[in-house]
Design goal:
The complex is a heterodimer.
Chain A: H1 11-19, H2 26-47, H3 58-73, E1 77-82, H4 89-108, E2 112-116, H5 119-135, E3 147-149, H6 154-168, E4 172-178, H7 182-192, E5 196-201, H8 207-213, E6 216-219, H9 221-231, H10 234-266, H11 273-284
Parallel strand pairs in A: 1-2, 1-4, 2-3, 4-5, 5-6
Chain B: H1 5-22, H2 28-65, H3 71-89, E1 97-100, E2 115-122, E3 125-132, H4 135-140, H5 143-147, E4 152-155, H6 158-189, H7 195-211, H8 221-226, H9 228-249, H10 253-272, H11 279-314, E5 318-319, E6 324-325
Chain lengths: ~290, ~325
């Protein structure tokens, strides 16, 4: 289509494309603006006090049960935030949940152990747990060495965590964040000790492993929703609602695109309005649409 | 100031990184920013390394001082941390000597040959493996060494010995444990406890049979492959009819009717399925359509979740770097 060729653009836009803004990424920018605005709108609505319904997530409902059980039998709680670095979105989501879980643990006065694979993540999590204990009004219960570094080697870390599970027999294991091949090693070691296991990852290839080896699994986006769900803070719940509406918009776009593509394919269309619209929808999701 | 400065730094850096994504990749600004990010990551990473080391020493040192159970392992951990760190610091020329033998089959200049010899240095000498491979593997071969036609003696850095003969084999051992864990996990997953679990079981059996060379099984292999459709559809229909019968005896006539209709529908689908659809084709259908659709659904949710988390962090609603919410 003529619309998507660089040479058909005005000279100033060609200059901008070469030096300041890659026009191939224009669709990404528009997507960010639209979906970002939706999320910001619902955050503001939540701020104004509007009631927002959020569906029940069994994995997160069971957190309290897991903490209660650990307190009853007097065994520690193990929290593992995956093998991602500090810039990994899944690690950030896992850290958000850790803050809330640590706050509840502080109330129960149970031991918390957070072995880390990344020193930077460790430093952030130390601060998180410390703040959580302070928020809970139990700063004296915070132990400096409850968040500690093990190894930055993936399998050395997996072995060390499995060892901790077998030796210290934690009552509850939280496996949240970014995981790779070590997911099943850790989850199976935990399952063999009889601990309640709550797992969550957005790594699609690891989700089946967690489903078979853990009691509750947060699938994909539920991991990102967990922080808001557990804290029940209106501001955070607003962002959840925004995500849901954004998903609805995407589903509607997909349905329209599927109908158009089917019509084009069934009627063997080569030009005309329907073909043009179908081609346009195809190209607005392409990061190399401008040739 | 202590409360305001970190969110401001975080917000500004986040916006800069977002703008960086939209810059054309061949511009000087893009490259300069990339270099800045890489250098900053290295600097922060080095400091992080010291923090990690300090935590390791503190944690294991405490265990040794308190004579906690298993404190001997802490001694070993700390000792090897020191030894491996030292081997990385000392000269690259210090290390065991290994002999490289003439490489008759390696043709460095004529890569079209694609027949290479890779020398693996071991603690007990050397091992050479001649293999046919592609150019990527050829590039990993120790090219300057292999050009020579004479027997050469060279020093292999001590750190590489530790890495190749201690860390790598131990990592591979842990990784290979996955095979056993997969069996126990599969055993737990493959139990037909409910209707959904039964579907999972049936589709996993189809994929399993589609993946393995069934035809190679003596006597029955070829028969199974020739009657794939009969086996799959009959198992499905019989299972659904069994479930329908159970519902009938429990006096749940509506459920019984729905299940019987499903069995009839599967029979119709079977009638219209082309004869050349075998286990491999069924496997491809399951992996390419329902499995792929589910994966993409999850991916869309994950990306939206990431976007929402980014907005919350950039706008200071969530501040994990400051110990929690804002």
């Amino acid at each position: 289509m003529e619309l998507f060729t660089i040479k058909s653009l005005p000279l100033w836009l060609q200059y901008v494309n070469e030096n300041w803004f890659d026009l191939n990424k224009l669709n990404a920018l528009i997507g960010i603006i639209i979906f970002g605005s939706l999320i910001v709108y619902f955050i503001r609505r939540a701020k104004s006090g509007a009631y927002l319904f959020v569906r029940r997530i069994p994995g997160l409902e069971s957190i309290e049960e897991a903490l209660g059980r650990a307190t009853e039998i007097g065994r520690p709680i193990l929290y593992i935030s995956g093998i991602g670095g500090e810039s990994d979105m899944q690690t950030i989501a896992a850290m958000n949940i850790l803050g809330n879980v640590a706050e509840q643990i502080a109330h129960y006065d149970t031991d918390l152990k957070v072995p880390c694979i990344n020193p930077i993540v460790m430093t952030i999590e130390q601060e998180l747990v410390k703040q959580a204990y302070t928020r809970a009004g139990r700063p004296e219960n915070y132990k400096e060495d409850c968040v500690y570094y093990l190894s930055d080697n993936q399998f050395a870390y997996a072995s060390a965590v499995s060892g901790i599970m077998v030796r210290e027999k934690p009552a509850a294991n939280f496996l949240l964040g970014n995981y790779a091949a070590e997911s099943l090693i850790i989850a199976e070691a935990g399952a063999s000790t009889g601990a309640i296991q709550i797992a969550g990852t957005a790594a699609i290839s690891q989700i089946p492993f967690f489903i078979v080896a853990c009691d509750y699994t947060l699938i994909g986006e539920e991991l990102f929703a967990a922080g808001a769900y557990v804290s029940r803070e209106p501001l955070l719940l607003g962002s959840l609602k925004g995500q849901d509406i954004a998903k609805l918009v995407i589903i509607l776009i997909m349905i329209v695109a599927i109908i158009l593509a089917t019509v084009v394919s069934a009627l063997l269309l080569k030009d005309g309005f329907v073909y043009g619209l179908s081609d346009f929808m195809n190209k607005i999701f392409d990061l190399k649409a401008f040739k | 100031m202590r409360n305001y400065l970190p969110p401001i730094i975080c917000g500004v850096c986040g916006v800069i990184m977002m703008l960086h994504f939209f810059l054309p990749e061949n511009t000087m600004l893009y490259k300069t920013m990339m270099e800045w990010v890489t250098n900053s990551t290295i600097v922060v990473g080095v400091f992080g390394l010291f923090i990690g080391l300090a935590s390791l020493v503190h944690n294991h040192g405490n265990r040794i001082a308190r004579r906690s159970p298993g404190w001997g392992y802490s001694v070993i951990t700390l000792s090897f941390t020191a030894i491996v760190a030292l081997t990385g610091i000392i000269s690259q020329n210090v290390g065991p000597s290994v002999v490289s033998k003439p490489l008759d089959k390696y043709n460095y200049d004529n890569r079209k040959n694609q027949d290479h010899t890779l020398i693996t240095h071991t603690l007990f000498g050397y091992k050479d493996e001649t293999y046919k491979t592609n150019l990527v593997a050829a590039a990993t071969a120790d090219a300057p060494e292999m050009k020579g036609e004479e027997i050469t003696v060279r020093k292999v850095p001590l750190f590489m010995f530790f890495y190749n003969y201690v860390i790598m084999p131990m990592g591979a051992t842990t990784f290979s444990l996955l095979a056993f864990y997969m069996i126990t996990a599969t055993y737990r997953a493959m139990r037909a406890k409910s209707w959904e679990a039964s579907l999972l079981l049936i589709s996993s059996i189809i994929i399993l049979i589609g993946q393995v060379p069934i035809e190679e099984i003596p006597l029955i292999g070829k028969w199974i492959m020739g009657h794939a459709q009969l086996i799959v559809y009959m198992s499905l229909i019989l299972y659904i009819l069994y479930a329908a019968m159970k519902q009938f005896f429990s006096r749940n006539f509506i459920t019984c009717g729905i299940l019987s209709a499903s069995a009839a529908l599967i029979g119709v689908i079977w009638y219209y399925t082309p004869a050349n659809v075998d286990f491999e084709a069924m496997k491809s259908i399951i992996l390419n359509y329902p499995n792929n659709a589910a994966k993409r659904g999850i991916l869309i949710g994950v990306q939206l979740g990431s976007l929402a988390t980014s907005i919350k962090i950039l706008s200071g609603i969530e501040k994990p770097y400051m110990g929690g919410r804002g």
